[in-house]
Amino acid sequence: MNVYLYKETIIYLISKIGLEESSIELGLKLSKKNNTQLPIILWSYGMLTIEELDELYSFLFQKMKS
C-alpha cells in the first residue's frame, strides 16, 4: 500500500467509520504481528462490522482505480 493510500485509509477510518485512533494503532500493530491486512484485523477483532468492512473495501477499490 502506498503512503497516500495508507493515509487516506486512516482518515477514512476516523472520519467516516468513526474509529478511535487507539483502535487503529492496535489494529496496525496486530496487522504487522500477524502479517494480515488491516481491514481484516479490524473486522476479526470486532472493531468493524461486516458492513463497515464492505464500505472500507469499496473505498479502497475506488481509490486504487483513480
Largest sheet: none
- The arrangement of helices and strands along the chain is HHHH
DSSP strand count? 0
Helix content: over 70%
Strand content: under 5%
Anisotropy-based shape: globular
Protein structure class: mainly alpha
Kindly state the mean pLDDT as a whole number? 94
Low-confidence spans: none
Count of alpha/pi helices: 4
Terminal residue distance:
14 Å
Supply Rg.
11 Å
- Number of domains as seen in the coordinates: 1
Which terms would index this structure?
66 residues; mainly alpha; 0% strand; globular
Give an overview in words.
This protein is globular. It has one domain (3-65). The longest helix is centred in the last third of the chain and has 16 residues, at 50-65. It starts with a helix and ends with a helix. It is 79% helix and 0% strand. By secondary structure, it is mainly alpha-helical.
Q: Can I get a quick summary?
A:
The protein is an all-alpha fold and 66 residues long.
